[in-house]
Fold this protein.
Amino acid sequence: MTVQGLAEAIDVNPKTVERWITQGKVPYRRHQYATATALKVDVTTLWDDSRTVESSADLSKAEIVAVYPHRHTVPPGLWREIYTRAQTRMDVLVYSGLFLSEDPLFHDLLKAKVEAGTEARILLGDPGCAAVRQRGVDEGHRIMDGKIRNALLHYRPLFASHPDIGFRLHDATLYNSIYRSDDEMLVNPHVYGIGAYLAPVFHLRRLPGGGLFDTYANSIEHTWENARQVTDRDITGA
C-alpha cells in the first residue's frame, strides 16, 4: 500500500503518514487502530506500546457479542438474522453445515441477497478428502462425506438458477465452522469427540483494531483461494 493509499484509507494527510515512517512519530491511538485494520495486521506489530496492547485486548473482548454453550442453544432465527443484515458479503465455511442447507428460508435469503448485489460464498468440505474422513471419526461417526453430499443435494437447485452464488469444496482441516455476514459472524469451534451442534458458538462483531474478528475472516479467504468447483460426481458419489 502506498503512503497516499493509506492516508486516504484512514482519512489523514499523506504527510502525516510520511512522518510516522521517516521520523518515527507515533500516531494517535485511533489512527494506530485504523492503520492496523487497513494493513490487516495486529496493531502491536506496528507500534510497541503497552497501552496499545491493553487497548487492543480490550477491543478484542468487545468484539464478542455473545457466547452460547452449544450450537443448539443459539436462538433459531439468529443464523438468518445476521445474513439478513448483509449488504456486501455473506460466507459459510463448514464441512457440511447440513442444518443450514436444509432451511428453505435460508435458500430464499441467499437468492434475494445475490440478486441485490451481495456476494455469497458457500464453502463445504470435499467429500473424498482426508480431512473430511478424519472429522467424521473425531465426531464419533464415519458419515461426514454423506452429510456433505446431502447438503450439496439441497443446494443443487441453486447451482443453475443462481450461478452467481459461489459454491466450492475445500480439503482444509477446519477448527471452526464460520458463518460471516459483513462485519458480523458466528463461530462454531470444533471439539474432539462431539458433533458441532454440541460445541460452543461465539457471536462476533468486528471493531477496528480488535483483531479477533479479522483472524477468523482471514481463514475464510485462505480457504476460498485453495478450494475447487463442485462437480456432479461430488453430489452423487459415483
In short: The mean pLDDT is 91. The beta strands are 64-68, 89-93, 119-125, 166-170, 176-181, 184-189, 201-205, 228-229. Residues 3-61 form one domain. The longest strand covers residues 119-125.
